[in-house]
Amino acid sequence: MLSNTMERTQPGTTALPPYLLDLVGQARRSVEIDPDFTRRCLEEISSLLTSVTSAVVERGLAPSGPATPAGTLAKGGLASWQIQRVRAYVEEQLDNTVLIEDLAGVAKLSPGHFCRAFKASTGETPHGYIVRQRLRRAQTLMLNTNDTLSQIACACGLTDQAHLTRLFRRMLNETPLSWRRNWRFA
């Protein structure tokens, strides 16, 4: 099954194959209608993710961002200690405003150089990374707390519930409320 899955991905990337996304969609649609089919879909998804993860580790590819052999840096990118420090800083400050100048200071670079190096290392801009982390925290809070979406938005450093909804819809093509209903008791 892995060979079929790997053929469907673009060479040189570690993106999830479309087949996996199709399985997730099928499982979501059939969860109440056909639990046995849903279970089979989830088992297939689990085995695919295990296989893809094993293939990534065997190839020595970075866990996120562009595919580069382990131990090498992307040309013009950040050192691993810089990436680790920036990620830790973002995680600590996620409920506050995170400025590029502060991130650059953590990496001991100028803001302009930091932005270019961060994108070269991770494949996304610092702002995109911060937004994605905020949405991940929002998802975690939606699943694990009974807080309102407005409270969750503020806890994730977003302005209000409307801001959370706009970002959520843009990134996940779904509103936070419908996502929460679909995944909370799944």
UniProtKB/TrEMBL annotation:
Keywords: DNA-binding, Transcription, Transcription regulation. It comes from the Bacteria. InterPro entries: AraC_XylS_family_regulators, Homeodomain-like_sf, HTH_AraC, HTH_AraC-typ_CS. Residues 84-182 form the HTH araC/xylS-type domain. Gene3D superfamilies: Homeodomain-like. It holds the Pfam family HTH_18. SMART domains: HTH_ARAC. PANTHER family: HTH-TYPE TRANSCRIPTIONAL ACTIVATOR RHAS-RELATED, TRANSCRIPTIONAL REGULATORY PROTEIN. This is AraC family transcriptional regulator. It comes from Sphingomonas natans.
